[in-house]
Amino acid sequence: MIPVEEARERILSRMSALGPERVELPRALHRVLSEDIVAARDIPPWPNSSMDGYALRAADTEAASGPAPARLTLGGRVAAGAIAERPLRPGEAFRIFTGAPLPEGADSVIPQEEVREEGPALRVPRPVRSGEFVRPRGEDMRAGDIVLQRGQALGAAELGLLATLERAQVSVVKRPQVGILSTGDEIVDLGGVPGPGQIPNSNTYSLMGQVAEAGALPVNLGVARDRLEDIETRLGWGLGCDALISSAGVSVGEHDFVKAALARLGAEQHLWLVDMRPGKPIAFATIPAGLKGALPVFALPGNPVSAMVTFELFVRPALLRMAGHARLDRPMITARAQADIPNPGRRRGYLRVTLTPEPDGYGARLTGDQGSGILRSMVAADGLAVVPGDTTIEAGGQVRVILLRAA
Ligand code: AMP
Ligand code: MG
Hints:
The protein is of the alpha/beta class. The chain contains 7 helices and 28 strands. The model has no long low-confidence stretch (mean pLDDT 97). The site of adenosine monophosphate has 18 residues, from helix 3.
């Protein structure tokens, strides 16, 4: 059995980012930059007012006080979207509005609530500091700054920043198309009626969801019978994808044909059987496929929880790397076991836990029975507790947890 870390290494070392494509900015959410973004100019490009008020020279208010206010001459007006008609002269104030460029000669702004207009004069009742209520040129970005880096995922703030830089389009990494095949004589797809001994296909749908949650594009290759030819044919339909995932039929039973089908497609197998629970029987192979070179294939176990957990540990980071992400791993936290978390058996456990906030962190508790067919353990799981083989984390002890979602 191969340790999880080595299995990941064998997989990730064979993954690389797909090529770039240009997309309209609003469609770039959650995509990954394929270029560094350099600010072409200072942002903001000129000093501007952060308040509705009056632009002035701080030096003209040095001696001002409530009883003896500075009296400045109202000399102009500048609204957002305009620029001052002329520079401000000593002893003057210009009416100014939020976002308007500071007139040349002014160095500060006093908010309108603090002052009084008296005919052509403005009474300023206190000394104003130079720079007060002014957003200086370049306070956000300076021309030449690398403000976003290749490999960075684009969230809402990044889209705003790109818009500020007038990027109507942006170059992002293509999203991997991922073919998903379920296998098994007992598996009946949605729309069919399971007969005696048959069960509904759930893996295709949980895996399609996981693929989409990872930002990739799922392609449903249906359900193959436990027959070499059927598996080979359906995997063949997916040869144009960027990655393939199968579930079930990858153990050592007489009806397990996935590895044989992969061999028929010329696949080179890089890994089989990983030291983990759930999920030991997982294989990873590459098929030499046309222009794309090597097509990665993940043959996941059939048990619904095993399929999902092995996806988490191996397929998700691989798809993220293909999609250009620099960060491949979920966040990990240390939580306090609220009750015993036993991991009987030699294999390392990835146990489903719920997390609850505690005064100084999080408490973790098993979701319940950990059978690899209990899909509700995945529904309830906020995270996967990583527990060494033959170990019980006792109540009150610390346990490492991979966060599956914000708890
Ligand atoms: P196998 O890996 O073929 O031995 O399958 C392990 C278990 O997973 C069996 O109980 C299967 O019935 C179940 N299983 C396999 N494929 C699916 C699927 N697509 N949906 C739900 N359960 C499945
Ligand atoms: Mg089977």
